[in-house]
Amino acid sequence: xxxxxxxxxxxxxxxxxxxxxxxxxxxxxxxxxxxxxxxxxxxxxxxxxxxxxxxxxxxxxxxxxxxxxxxxxxxxxxxxxxxxxxxxxxxxxxxxxxxxxxxxxxxxxxxxxxxxxxxxxxxxxxxxxxxxxxxxxxxxxxxxxxxxxxxxxxxxxxxxxxxxxxxxxxxxxxxxxxxxxxxxxxxxxxxxxxxxxxxxxxxxxxxxxxxxxxxxxxxxxxxxxxxxxxxxxxxxxxxxxxxxxxxxxxxxxxxxxxxxxxxxxxxxxxxxxxxxxxxxxxxxxxxxxxxxxxxxxxxxxxxxxxxxxxxxxxxxxxxxxxxxxxxxxxxxxxxxxxxxxxxxxxxxxxxxxxxxxxxxxxxxxxxxxxxxxxxxxxxxxxxxxxxxxxxxxxxxxxxxxxxxxxxxxxxxxxxxxxxxxxxxxxxxxxxxxxxxxxxxxxxxxxxxxxxxxxxxxxxxxxxxxxxxxxxxxxxxxxxxxxxxxxxxxxxxxxxxxxxxxxxxxxxxxxxxxxxxxxxxxxxxxxxxxxxxxxxxxxxxxx
Length: 542
Fold this sequence. Notes:
This protein is an alpha/beta fold.
């Protein structure tokens, strides 16, 4: 008899969410994680900068608050608490003015009106028009993908009843084209464009317009911060799993998915924490002590290229899919991040707490949410052009985050944390460059780009942890440093993600299932993949 109902590969948040639902349903579940700490890219550590709790992956939690997951799992009972970060985004203009994006649309429009009165009304119409369409897409994201479900969700939301083919043409266009047609002021366009760019595709990519349309739903979810760090979500999930008899094993790298008689029957698990496997589909896992864990089903929460590469390298049943997976658009990374301990908050124009102007250093509204540091086009285009040429952006766009402004427990008194996510930075560099040689230069470029709006930042840094695309690959198993696993283009979304025959969380190998950012609906702290995959596995075991 198998010792488990479900053996789960990896402890990213989707894998943990799936494990939580299955354990609550009475299934015998165990999660196996190669790292010393669970959570994958939703992890907060206290050994990166002494005295600080540092996120090593995600920081802002947005999409998961548009799902029923937190309520269904009642994670508050396991210690999870959130702080609302409102305004959820703040966009400074280089003339000292700023646009504030609040959950309250009226308040947001008043802020936009101070820059462009006509765009304030246009923004209200934009939110009203895109809210039903984005809700329809969200509904499709919360279930296994199917062409009929996606079309019906959009049709029932009125997406094609009003505007018909013109609306379809807009959806199939780029978010740059959508924003250019909707707003007049370059700063208004740039603020929304930079939010849309967080999913990866550049502004001119066809089929990317809905990435800007999601702006409407951010007024419903806002940006929230887990108290104690992003990893508090993973910690609560681990506590829930164990409370229902499930197991979470860290320092337990999965070496192989066992396939017998054409069926997945368990895992071969090693001992001891180890860095990410070399991300090569031909790589054979390291030798060493292993144990066999037998299960009725296997749920792989790692990158799809890891699943069909090293973990199934021995299985002839995976050969055909292995070749197809190798041809997926993983891309060439798109961002890197600096995790800084600073002795003062960024001194943006208009900060009443600025000590240089007689303030007391107290956080302002601009420090609560996402600080969108990206001048209007063609600024982002130039950064993308550098990326396409295999060069770290000479003038990167930045999202600055100062979470200690809403959660002072993250670092010592009198200090703050400043995270700087920047785009665009390619994983594979041209001209013989390496990330070992480029990391310091790229970090300096990000600090200079931030100083364009907050001149005090470079001089305020006391400690810094750099994560280049190469570091993201090694630390989190993200091929090419792509935090979304696969490119989020229209050809790799919905029932195409990761491949049509893998899109429903099932695989052609009986007993083997998938979850994670490689699957529908993609990356971000969302959890929808884990929730849907758990239901697919539960029904298969019934």
